[in-house]
Amino acid sequence: MLVDRTSIANFDTAPSDAPVAGVGGRAHLALGKGKVVVVVNDEVIVTDAAGGEIARWRLEVRDGSPVDVEMQKSGKLLIGSRSGLVQYNLDGFRDRTLATADALPAGFETYDLAYDEKGKLWAATDNGWLVKFKKPGVAEYEVRYATAAVPAPRLVVYDGVAWISSGDHVRRLDAIALYDEQVAAESAP
User: Fold this and answer.
1) Which of 12, 13, 103, 160 is 20 to 30 A (C-alpha) from 58?
2) What are the domain boundaries of the chain?
């Protein structure tokens, strides 16, 4: 017998419960510490692994529309938006701003975040930049992976190799080698 387990994302938004102006977008998911976080528009729903609701709250308008969400090792939620990176506790407390939009190369519309196997945060932007962070908001390095637009990039990273998908195309990049090539080209006479 199949059981419909989709009900946590099917909630009514009556006019009195409409999303707050200035935020919105698509649904996002994050997993960590036995919790699943669903972000739909400006609403955040925290569930246990079985789908039981633990908490429900709204993002602050000043944080803008989420472009990606990631669960940190600490169990806190990292919300990426065009405004920057913000950390929330799972009870809805806005912990702090980790970075403004300046932490990413200029000109992006959207980006995707990923943690690698060592817990380092990376970002791939739709204008062709891959960023590895020393810590959220402080770039270790940036490399150009595309010169044309990359609509809605999706990113995973393992051992310095980035896999970036967009539409039906997947790029596999050795980020360290790309960075070394970039540095050599910039320092060439």
Assistant:
1) 103
2) 21-103, 104-189
Can you give the pLDDT at residue 19?
Answer: 46
Cα–Cα distance measured from residue 130 to residue 90, given in angstroms and rounded to the nearest whole number:
28
Q: pLDDT by residue (tens digit) across 71-97?
A: 999 999 999 998 899 999 999 999 999
- The residue assigned the tokens 């989709």 is 6
Rounded to whole angstroms, the Cα distance separating 125 from 151 reads 9
**CATH number attached to the domain at 104-189:** 2.40.10
103: exposed, middle or buried (Cβ count in 10 Å: 0-12, 13-18, 19+): middle
| Tokens of residue 64, six digits | 């803008």
Q: How far apart are CA 76 and CA 35, in angstroms?
A: 11
pLDDT at 21 over 70: no
Is the pLDDT assigned to residue 131 strictly greater than 60?
Answer: yes
Place of tokens 């939620």: 77
What distance in Å separates the CA atoms of residue 156 and residue 168, rounded to the nearest whole number? 16
Amino acid 1: pLDDT: 38
